[in-house]
Write a structure and sequence with these properties.
The chain is of the alpha/beta class. Among the domains are: 122 residues, OB fold (Dihydrolipoamide Acetyltransferase, E2P); 172 residues, inorganic pyrophosphatase (n-terminal core); 108 residues, Roll (Diaminopimelate Epimerase, Chain A, domain 1). It is 41% helix and 21% strand. It contains 19 helices and 18 strands. The strands form four sheets. The protein has a five-stranded parallel beta sheet, with helices on both faces. The chain has a five-stranded mixed beta sheet with strand order 7-8-9-11-10, sandwiched between helices. The protein has a five-stranded mixed β-barrel with strand order 14-15-16-18-17. Helix 1 crosses helix 2 and helix 12 packs across helix 14.
Length: 577
């Protein structure tokens, strides 16, 4: 067996609460413990978690400044003012822009949008863009997924007599922009109960508030947009932004995935067709690995305008043309990503002291600015250290940073702020701008901060194991019950169980592209189950059939010939103690 190991952390069971949930909800103690492990500590919350519905959403007017935002938009509508939606070029920003644009046009509002070009303008509000909007007669700018740190830009807009409504979810700075209204659940004085909405989620709250106001104004129900059908866009942005799938985000994902599966949006249907998933029920992984990257590709390599046009068009021919273009751009992105990843790995071997360094900070003029964020994520997966990759362009560098659970990226960058021109983001992902001449100094300082904030064990990946169970406890009924906790994702991960002392029946079989996967059968007494490990073939180096093994896995249900069967999805394996 491979000696490089994850840390196995067995979550302590709460037998008293297990019994309460099990009896009160008529569920197994195993499912009860999974609820407990997700921070649910009373029967009422457990019941709400399992039985949550669209009626479980909080009142959007609890969000600070919502009344001001709605009032200003209604005024713009009545005064026939031109409204500009100012978005971001990632999936969250693209879906948020598209959602607000569609809703306003459904209500007959004159609305346009502006997405900055990543390589030319960078992230967020910029002065030249505000001037362009002013020149086109814009009186109101609504930012989506950006703007919370744009203090100077907000002042400039105010001087130009443009009102600004900011909707954002990124890390708050000490000074808020002087905007007409700010929708951010984390700002001081905001009573909105759920703080982890992404950009498109906040826009969803805004259009819910607008719809309610239109209804109160006497507009008949049949003339108001059906917001449930727009959950396809809300879930796309929420899942692609790797938001925690708890609370309202889990509701958005749960019902939004169903809407993606049956969407009537012409562009989304075309994208599903091009991606080869038009006839299936859409899962979280389909958004994260198939749909999201194609939508992202436009903004990464060029202009995100194509993705906005895709999600808002009613023309089937145009939709299919754009979908094919995005698919092609995504393939280009994959090639560029592979080249950068190869170079980064080589630089790590030559420049980094992996046994000493707590972080990885590298730079190069050869790297495409729109792709380095994905590569940074790959490096974090491989080396489990906070990673910053900086694309150099003459005097300046643009960086993308990705983190690990025990390190707060934004805080780390804040402590280096005197060396940076600009930065922003949150705990797990951030961006920065820096003068090229200061990169070495920044690297040393960031390494020092990472050394202060991280211990040795923090840089070893950890698997949180929900429970020790026997293979004989698993059947289709239990797995289907567990799936009531789905959809699984960040903060609501798929369950990881450990079964100890199992035997491997026969020899493991290596399969898949580049022989990266393993398939085998495991048995424990009378139970024999299929197990598959994706990209885990390295774990069977030194396999010896005379040993028993401890395995960590997620149980899933497969359908073979119309018959359901439990299969195990391997996470880790080691020789039994």
């Amino acid at each position: 067996m491979n000696l490089i190991r994850n840390r196995w952390n067995f979550i302590e069971p709460n037998h008293e609460l297990q019994e309460s949930f099990s009896k009160g909800l008529s569920i197994s103690p195993i499912t009860a413990q999974l609820l407990i492990n997700r921070g649910i500590d009373n029967l009422t919350n457990a019941l709400d978690f399992i039985n949550s519905s669209l009626n479980s959403f909080h009142n959007p007017y609890q969000m600070k400044d919502m009344d001001n935002a709605v009032r200003r938009i209604i005024h713009a509508m009545n005064s026939k003012e031109k409204i500009f939606i100012y978005g971001d070029y990632d999936v969250d920003g693209i879906t948020a822009t598209s959602l607000l644009l569609i809703f306003l046009k459904e209500m007959g509002v004159d609305a346009s949008y502006y997405i900055p070009k990543r390589t030319e303008e960078g992230y967020g509000l910029n002065l030249n863009a505000i001037k362009k909007i002013k020149g086109q007669g814009g009186k109101l700018i609504i930012t989506v997924d950006c703007g919370i740190t744009a203090v100077e830009e907000a002042r400039a807009a105010k001087e130009m007599e443009i009102d600004l409504i900011i909707t954002d979810h990124h890390q708050l700075s000490d000074t808020l922009p002087p905007a007409f209204a700010i929708l951010h659940p984390g700002q001081e004085g905001c009573q909105y109960p759920f703080k982890s909405l992404v950009g498109v989620g906040i826009v969803f709250k805004l259009i819910k508030s607008l719809r309610r106001t239109f209804r109160d104004m006497g507009i008949s129900q049949d003339k108001l947009p059906n917001l449930k059908k727009h959950l396809d866009l809300v879930s796309l942005g929420t899942i692609a932004d790797i938001a925690p799938l708890l609370g309202e985000n889990r509701l958005i994902a749960k019902y939004g995935l169903k809407e993606i599966s049956r969407t009537e949006k012409t562009g989304l249907k075309a994208l599903k067709t091009v991606a080869g998933i038009n006839e299936k029920e859409i899962a979280v992984t389909d958004v994260g690995f198939i749909l999201g990257p194609r939508i992202n590709a436009a903004g990464r390599l060029g202009d995100a305008d194509a993705a906005i046009r895709l999600l808002t068009t009613d023309n089937e021919d145009e939709a299919m043309e754009i979908a094919r273009y995005l698919d092609s751009e995504n393939r280009k992105r994959q090639v560029i990503q592979g080249e950068i990843l190869k170079e980064v790995r080589s630089m790590i071997k030559g420049q980094c002291l992996l046994d000493k360094d707590r972080a990885i900070v590298l730079s190069s003029p050869n790297w495409h600015q729109g792709v380095i964020g994905i590569v940074a994520s790959k490096i974090v997966e491989e080396y489990y250290k906070p990673t910053i990759l900086i694309s150099l362009d003459g005097e300046y560098g643009k960086g993308s940073a990705r983190g690990i659970p025990s390190f707060h990226l934004y805080e780390g960058l804040r402590r280096c702020s005197e060396l940076l021109i600009d930065f922003g983001g949150h705990k797990y992902a951030a961006g920065l701008t820096i003068k090229s001449e200061r990169i070495n100094e920044f690297r040393d300082h960031f390494q020092k901060i990472a050394g202060e904030m991280l211990k040795d064990e923090d840089c070893i990946p950890q698997i949180n194991i929900d429970m020790n169970i026997k293979l004989s406890e698993l059947d289709c009924q239990l797995v289907e019950e567990i799936n009531k906790i789905a959809p699984f994702g960040p903060s609501n991960p798929p369950p990881f169980f450990c079964s100890k002392g199992v035997e491997i029946a026969g020899e493991p079989v290596i399969v898949g592209k580049n022989n990266g996967h393993i398939k085998m059968e495991v048995e424990n007494g009378t139970e024999v189950m299929d197990i598959i490990g994706f990209n885990l073939s390295h774990l069977i180096e030194g396999f010896d059939s005379s040993y028993s093994y401890d395995i960590v896995y997620t149980p899933i249900i497969r359908n073979w010939g119309g018959k359901k069967k439990v299969q195990l999805k391997l996470k880790d394996i080691r020789v039994a103690e």
